[in-house]
Amino acid sequence: MDVVVVESPNKVKSINKYLGRNYKVLASFGHVRDLPAKDGSVKPDEDFAMSWEVDGPSSKRLTDIAKAVKEADGLILATDPDREGEAIAWHVLEVLKQKRALKDKPVKRVAFNSITKQAVLDAIANPREIDPPLVDAYLARRALDYLVGFTLSPVLWRKLPGARSAGRVQSVALRFVCDREAEIERFVREEYWNIAAVLGTPRSESFEARLTAYDGKKLQKLDIKSKDQADAIRTMLEGAAFKAVSVEAKPTRRNPAPPFTTSTLQQAASSRLGFSASRTMQVAQRLYEGMEVGGETTGLITYMRTDGVQMAPEAIAEARTSIAREFGEKYLPEKPRHYTTKAKNAQEAHEAIRPTDFSRLPQEMKKYLDADQARLYELIWKRAIASQMQPAEIERTTVEIEAVNGGLTAGLRAVGSVIRFDGFIAAYTEQKEDDADDEENKRLPDIRSGESLKRESVVATQHSTEPPPRYSEASFIKKMEELGIGRPSTYVATLKTLEDRDYVKIENRKLMPQPKGRLVTAFMESFFQHYVEYDFTASLEEKLDEISDGKLAYKDVLRDFWRDFSRAIADIKDLRVTEVLDALNEELAPLVFPEREDGSNPRICPKCGSGNLSLKLGKFGAFVGCSNYPECSFTRQLGDAVNGNGEALSGEDGTKVLGNDPYTAEEITLRSGRFGPYVQRGDGKEAKRASLPKGWTTDSIDHEKALALLSLPRDVGKHPESGKMISAGIGRYGPFVLHDGTYANLESPEDVFSIGINRAVSVIAEKQSKGKGGRNGGTPAALKDLGAHPDGGGNVTVRDGRYGPYVNFGKVNATLPKDKDPASVTLEEALVLIAEREAKGGGKKPARAKKATGGAKKPAAAKSAKAKG
Prior knowledge:
Layout: E1 2-6, H1 12-19, E2 23-27, E3 42-43, E4 49-50, H2 56-70, E5 74-77, H3 83-98, E6 107-109, H4 117-125, H5 132-159, H6 170-186, E7 191-200, E8 206-214, E9 217-218, H7 227-238, E10 241-254, H8 262-273, H9 277-289, E11 291-293, E12 296-298, H10 313-326, H11 362-365, H12 371-386, E13 392-405, E14 408-421, E15 452-464, H13 473-483, H14 491-500, E16 504-507, E17 510-513, H15 515-527, H16 534-548, H17 554-572, H18 577-587, H19 589-592, E18 613-618, E19 621-626, E20 635-637, E21 656-660, E22 667-673, E23 676-681, E24 688-691, H20 703-710, E25 714-718, E26 725-731, E27 734-739, E28 742-745, H21 749-754, H22 757-769, E29 782-788, E30 795-801, E31 804-809, E32 812-815, H23 827-839, H24 859-868
Parallel strand pairs: 1-2, 1-5, 5-6
Antiparallel strand pairs: 3-4, 7-8, 7-15, 8-9, 8-14, 10-13, 10-15, 11-12, 13-14, 16-17, 18-19, 19-20, 21-22, 22-23, 23-24, 25-26, 26-27, 27-28, 29-30, 30-31, 31-32
């Protein structure tokens, strides 16, 4: 018997079934070791030796793997087919060597691009050894990230209080989000006018033509700048005679795009399905790991972390067969299409994302998938099938028109396109960010060269130039890939880090740099410019790729980097804080000193009139203060909106004054704390505080809303049967009503302030009919239903028990980590926690269709699981 180690526990059952009794499949649950989060884990003075640490759950799993290997004939490392998978295989092997579990047993490395029986069996039949250059590239990347983070972050803490961290990729990604914001701030709008005429042919067909020339001069977009100028041209055209000077029709061909890579899938799912990048990867992971189809668990797509654009020959042959069957022979090119990636640092050996079987049509798969899975599978299937179809044939027609009025002439142009053969468009079309100017399907009537045209109307419309848009998640990922920064598999994690650090906020699907993020970027650009340059970061990625190709020694790359980086750190150690602030004042002037309506100097203190405003550093970060302190106490929080005089009611501690309580006269303030924004009445330990509910932003909080929050809990009225008071409030898990110890959830925070006695009684009664929740004993009601367990046996839910929130499956209860928001738990995360709990003997799985399975019955574990309920 051989032991097979995979990453995800969700793969274990299906792969074991494919391989049979001669194999035992175990999961590593991802990475098993990492560098401890403390100084000294990477030692440059010891030739970059690294200290690895195994966490508690991984230690238990590795012990189980070691025990199984000792009793086995050999070891097969079948972790994911990417660089991280190679690293995990290496880590597992290193730990097993330390445990002396291997002896002389053979060790093989296999990688399958999809979880299907054929793919798994082919991989087992064609093993290889662990790829040392790939492992070296991982070690170099991990060491670089550690050295930058743990060397630079302490400098930030000392010189820029409130800043949390910096990173090799993170800081560069933050820079281009902040650079875009700076572009927007510098942008100066320009007004311009467009003029168009609606004209008719002699056959009474209408079309629109736009002005392109006037009085012998070609017009650019911004050339018509005033209403007077536009009116004069419109008057001339209203009295002009129009004639079609030329009609030119040009046939063009549009070729399909290649199948999806990680980044292009994230971009398409964002624009078409409204998925966040993280949601896209979660759904794709489930499609890859497998669904129950026809009584067997099988993977529906190939591995979703890839930057390759080519499909395997057998997949191309399958796609061509499906094209002929589903669309017809005319849609099938004579030869297969082959693609090469344009992305920097791509791993060409990896396949693109595609269906594992093109005969599994999207409409047929819907019955096996939930809504999000079905939509993403359809997107992947259509893009992959379209990549092997005929090009679209489009005829683009351009009509040049002359308008004559006395001695004045003008030129107009009408453009339209007709799809003569849809080709790949029959399966998939690219969705453009702005369809307003899309002329692909804008048809023109039959217009003949030399014929006169009838004027129906002339319209002049005013426009203004727009600043460049903020990045969306999709355009952020596209920019990262274009610049060659990071890897496709890291983009989601990079975004999450920027959010968690409060450097960036995602609002209306746009990335908004926060004041803290702007400060960090300005600091890095002022004192570590080389390390946030796009070219430098991209060139370092290229070196990492050369390591993975065996062309560079990874320690040589580390030595070169550390020599210059440690010198840059040493140069800034003695830098005074005043020098830092002077540089930031200059770099962030539009943010720190916004222009005033009266045109006065934005750096003069609006309170005393004689001091100069400047950035200052307080316990909670940066703020704007007066140079005449302590005589002048003016302060303003960085990033606060200001009035025409440059005033904002903000303080050094991050507070914003909203007004006073009408009954107590105490000051009502908006503050930012460890657990997020909140409102407070008064000062000191006895001050009343209330957190902002989910969905409420700091921008939306005014005096009235703050008073409403601080008035909670609110008495709704006495219950007609018990006579006891029903109250409404907002708690850890959202809005609720409470009666005699029974909590019932409300749909939105606004309901707390508006719910009446009748509805409150109804909501309480409905909750009681379902059984009492965890606050009263018994089985707590589900806070969130995550969906069906992939192995069957019921749904996985999130619940709130006596000892805090946990995930539940049957009789298995797994406590959530303390820092995990119950509302954000995904099914994938819950499955990992449940599997870990089962491995420890906690609880019992629900019965399956044919037999029941469960963990070992350990009284202590069972008692603990029961207590959570």
